[in-house]
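ok so i was messing around last nite and threw this chain in just to see what happens. nothing serious, just curious
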Amino acid sequence: MDFYGVRNGKINLSDLKISFKKFREFFFDTYLYFEEKKYFKLAFNGHHSRPKLMAPSPEAFLFKHVGNQDVFPIEQYYHRFDKTTVFTLIEILHQYIWNIEDFDVFDIFDDAQNTAQAEFRNEINKYLIHLEDGYLLSEKGYIIDLPDDGLGNLITRNLPEHTSDTVTEQVETAIKMFFKYDSNIEEKRKAIAILADILEPYRKDLKEYTTKKHDKIIFDIVNNYGIRHNDIEQVDDYDKPVWYEWMFHYYLSTVHAVLRLKKEHYK
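result:
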């Protein structure tokens, strides 16, 4: 339900920005909310016959993943956390959150985690979108820059069911590499190259699905604009942040299209 300010156009929530200090408080509030619901009981303490997931202890586990600093108990140290620490903890908490009331029945063990993770994402994303230019905790459990609506829909779209595990992993790696909050220009270039590499085995199919000219363009871009090769003949003098975003959108869209057309071809 929208309340008065939003309902009457007096408040535009999408334009609101918060400081990192404010976001850190919201992060702690969110953590505390789920901790009080015992969603981290399995991670921190174990449950019945199931051992704790953060073994041998939450302190030792988080030390291995966050670094040489005090992070647990979170309520004691959260006010000292920098952005990297908070974002790392968000991804860890998302990975290890469980609704223990739901998984006592073994058959729904996986569903119990999926439900809890969805709840956690829904809550923390309410605040991530307002930090700086906006971030998003994806369904895969990593924090990425908030893309525009069109690309946002594309990166969250499932690949066709027949897609191999290898290709699925390559696509997920490319998305994470391109959109993670501290991604640099070299990581973005490599992400585009991964998507282009996925298309290599489908060259013959591409000739059937597209025009010959389009088939050539698909690989000319990555082969001649410094994406897959490093030689003096490469075109390198262009606005990479702008064009890399277009390239990533283009190649990810092409991967989705080819995989779907391949599926239709075998029906």
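not much to say yet. The chain has 13 helices and two strands.
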